[in-house]
Structures are given as C-alpha cells and as structure tokens.
Design goal:
The protein is α/β, with parallel strands linked by helices and 98 residues long. The protein has helices at residues 53-66, 82-97, and strands spanning 2-8, 12-13, 19-22, 29-34, 41-47, 69-77. Helices cover 31% and strands 36% of the residues. Helix 1 (53-66) runs parallel beside helix 2 (82-97).
Length: 98
Amino acid sequence: MEKLIFKYPAASELVSRRAHVGVVASGDMEVLLEPSGAPGARIVVNTSVDGYRRTWKGVLDRFFSHYRGAAAIEINDFGATPGTVLLRLEQAAEKSRR
C-alpha cells in the first residue's frame, strides 16, 4: 500500500460541491472531490500498487492541464489503469459542477 501526495496551482475553484465517483474493487478506484479551503489543488492517492509515482504524476499533470481549479481530491485505487484514473477524475469534476 502506498500513499502519494501531489499539489497543483489553481487559477479558479474547480468544484462547487462534493462529488464521489467509482468504487474500490478489483481493478477499479474511487475519487472523492471537494472544494478546497486552500489555494491550489491537493491530491492524496492511496494505492494498492507500489512504485507508480511517475505514472500517477503523468495522469494528474494531464488532468490539471485542462482543469486548473482548487480542490481537495482523495483517490483510493485498487489497480486501475491510467485511462480509468483520468475518466474517474473527469467524471468527478463534471459531477461536482451540477
């Protein structure tokens, strides 16, 4: 089990309310997104797969190149692929704006 923490600058508020998408099960993950009281975005990744910091950073860099908002994000991963990670992040961002 590995815990990774990432921070990104923010130009605006990413979310207006909390959002939860996904489920922690074999090969999947969940994303918990909420407004951040601090400037920037803080992402905590709890993953069952060790040694993939560089991959996580690449996926998060891609996500935050499009979404430049402040948010507190917790990701609980059980071996999801990078494509699933990006999809879940985008779903959570969309859901939080509704």
